[in-house]
């Protein structure tokens, strides 16, 4: 019931309305099943004893009605009766097929909606939310756990309701024929299923949890293996990752196979019970009526009803086992969707770009990362003037990148404020502020697409400004390489993560990407670390030429990179230690060397 409540929560309001339509169709389907089974009773009764046409009021009335349409004898009437039973069966099966189609379409729609909502919810979470999450796990939830939840949670729930309605209708029909026999048959079958489920339920939950963990490990291993392929090749670790994946994947496959075995288990056990039950039913009916002609219609009804009832009981049991097995997947999706709704993640509306004319200022900023007591930034205050070049230096772990992430609006200060021209940057205007920014990280992300598409990253092909792409490539000093050395020039595909390019080429494409939208603020986070001295000088000369139009902020580990900065901030242990021009810092500290910022 706990899993069913979570499934209900996962569904949207429109999906819940669709469920009502499906339930109505399933109820009609169950009713048609009952009528179809019930129709076999008069047919077999007439077949075994034609005299019943004259003695039974309903059959006699219907027989006389058919006489008006040219039916002259009992044999012809029997053919008509058989034909009607067959037509009813065809209609029942056709409606069942339609209902099944609607169920499948509904589940595919749920798959689409959940995948879309989940990736949308993840993408619009704040940057800090991702710091404690594994990207492979997020991908697994979208691509795998939703399938697990639908296949082993939602589909079995729909099957459970559908087959329960069929079972109830058939049992009601059989009760009208023989109460005692129906109760005996139902208790025998029902108690068998309940007893088996009672013993396997705990094992199913444990197996489901194991399956969830193994599926998580599978995605993590694959992500690590292909993400670090260079290190794996150099370290000859192919066999290690292959064996690691094989072990986990085998365990995952085994748990899925166990689910199928457990789901089918009662079917084989009950085949023995049913065969013996048919013999006992014949003896019971013979003892009760004493006439084979009277036993045959009732026996036929029970056999035909059993033929329809057994799959329903088997599917009800199977549905319960699958829902128990899917518990961990349902829990994970339920919790993630609940967190997403709680955070009210939605696409922000960017009304206008927030201009910068005077300065960027940090006022008494404190910051520590989630689930960490360490204060990374402590009472930091500084000002960056508009249209200036500012450098940040400091040893590794000093907090430089955290300061930049706060300026980028990716992290929110615990205390203090980020201001632009006196306006405090908050969740309400952070997207407007980010519209100004071109950002180049140390590790450039490149998609498996063309050079042009990577420079105009996130822009549709038809909306791409190719002149702006070329101009940005020139400023990043990679235009000549693209034109002279690449066969398809800007339309050259660079491979996943830019694997066909050198580290320096990837960084220059990253710089071109940051310049494509003509930002008012350009932030370089060790963006030239992969360039040689000569290439770094050329790239930085191009960037320095932009100083009249944009504000440039640089994090660097090499002093040559920040020599021409208007102001340099020295950060250590999350605090501002010193600030000034390169000459002022160097002259004020004779021991100040490149080792102090590495």
Overview of this protein structure:
This protein is of the alpha/beta class. It folds into two domains: 2-342, Up-down Bundle (ABC transporter transmembrane region fold), CATH 1.20.1560; 359-597, P-loop containing nucleotide triphosphate hydrolases (Rossmann fold, 3-Layer(aba) Sandwich), CATH 3.40.50. Helices cover 64% and strands 10% of the residues. It contains 21 helices and ten strands. A hairpin with a 2-residue loop joins strand 9 (567-572) and strand 10 (575-580). It starts with a helix and ends in a 10-residue tail after the last helix. The relative contact order is 0.08.
**Within the CATH hierarchy, at the fold level, what is the topology of the largest domain?**
ABC transporter transmembrane region fold
Radius of gyration: 36 Å
Number of strands: 10
- The CATH class assignment of the largest domain is Mainly Alpha
CATH architecture designation of the largest domain: Up-down Bundle
Query: Going by CATH, what is the homologous superfamily of the largest domain?
Result: ABC transporter type 1, transmembrane domain
Q: Which bin fits the share of residues in helices?
A: 55-70%
Query: Hey, roughly how much beta strand do the residues contain?
Result: 5-15%
Q: What would you call the shape?
A: elongated
- How are the strands of the largest sheet arranged? 6-7-8-3-9-10
Mean pLDDT score? 78
| Domain unit count | 2
Distinct helical segment count:
21
Main β-sheet: number of strands, strand sense, barrel status? 6 strands, mixed
Derived from helix and strand composition plus strand pairing, the structural class reads alpha/beta
Report the uncertain regions: none
Q: What is the terminal-to-terminal distance?
A: 58 Å
């Amino acid at each position: 019931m706990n899993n069913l409540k979570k499934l209900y929560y996962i569904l949207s309001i429109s999906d819940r309305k669709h469920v009502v339509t499906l339930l109505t169709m399933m109820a009609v389907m169950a009713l048609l099943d009952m009528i179809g089974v019930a129709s076999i009773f008069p047919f077999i009764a007439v077949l075994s004893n034609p005299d019943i046409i004259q003695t039974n009021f309903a059959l006699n009335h219907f027989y006389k009605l058919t006489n008006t349409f040219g039916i002259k004898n009992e044999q012809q009437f029997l053919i008509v009766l058989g034909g009607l039973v067959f037509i009813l069966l065809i209609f029942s099966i056709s409606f069942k097929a339609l209902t099944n189609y609607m169920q499948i379409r509904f589940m595919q729609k749920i798959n689409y909606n959940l995948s879309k909502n989940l990736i949308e919810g993840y993408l619009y979470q704040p940057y800090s939310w991702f710091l404690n999450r594994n990207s492979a796990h997020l991908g697994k939830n979208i691509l795998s756990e939703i399938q697990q939840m639908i296949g082993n949670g939602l589909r079995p729930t729909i099957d459970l309701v559908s087959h329960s309605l069929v079972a109830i209708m058939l049992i009601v029909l059989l009760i009208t024929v023989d109460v005692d026999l129906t109760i005996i048959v139902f208790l025998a079958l029902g108690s068998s299923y309940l007893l088996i489920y009672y013993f396997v339920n705990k094992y199913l939950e444990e197996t489901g949890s194991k399956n969830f963990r193994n599926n998580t490990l599978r995605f993590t291993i694959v992500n690590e293996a292909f993400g670090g392929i260079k290190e794996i090749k150099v370290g000859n670790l192919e066999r290690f990752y292959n064996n690691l994946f094989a072990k986990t994947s085998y365990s995952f496959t085994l748990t899925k196979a166990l689910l199928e075995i457990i789901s089918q288990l009662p079917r084989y056990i009950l085949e023995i019970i049913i065969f013996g039950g048919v013999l006992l039913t014949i003896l019971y009916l013979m003892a009760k009526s004493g006439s084979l002609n009277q036993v045959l219609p009732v026996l036929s009804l029970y056999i035909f009803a059993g033929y329809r009832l057994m799959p329903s009981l088997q599917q009800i049991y199977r549905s319960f086992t699958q829902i128990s097995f899917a518990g961990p997947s349902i829990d994970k999706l339920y919790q993630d969707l609940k967190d997403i709704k709680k955070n009210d993640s939605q696409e922000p509306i960017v009304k206008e770009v927030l201009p910068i004319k005077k300065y960027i200022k940090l006022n008494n900023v404190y910051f520590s990362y989630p689930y960490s007591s360490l204060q990374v930034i402590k009472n930091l205050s500084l000002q960056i003037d508009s249209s200036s070049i500012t450098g940040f230096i400091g040893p590794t772990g000093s907090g430089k990148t955290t300061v930049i992430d706060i300026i980028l609006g990716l992290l929110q200060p615990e205390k203090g404020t980020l201001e632009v021209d006196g306006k405090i940057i908050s969740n309400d205007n952070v997207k407007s502020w980010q519209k100004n920014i071109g950002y180049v990280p140390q590790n450039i992300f490149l998609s498996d697409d063309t050079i042009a598409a990577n420079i105009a990253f996130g822009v549709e092909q038809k909306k791409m400004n190719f002149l702006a792409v070329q101009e940005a490539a020139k400023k990043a000093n990679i235009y000549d390489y693209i034109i002279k050395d690449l066969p398809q020039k800007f339309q050259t595909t660079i491979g996943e993560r830019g694997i066909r390019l050198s580290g320096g080429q990837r960084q220059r494409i990253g710089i071109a990407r940051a310049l494509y939208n003509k930002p008012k603020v350009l932030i370089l986070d060790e963006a030239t670390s992969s360039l040689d001295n000569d290439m770094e000088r050329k790239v930085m000369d191009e960037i320095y030429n932009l100083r009249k139009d944009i504000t440039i902020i640089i994090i660097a580990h090499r002093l040559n990179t920040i020599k021409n900065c208007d102001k340099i901030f020295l950060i250590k242990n999350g605090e501002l230690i010193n600030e000034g021009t390169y000459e002022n810092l160097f002259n004020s500290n004779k021991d100040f060397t490149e080792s102090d910022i590495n």
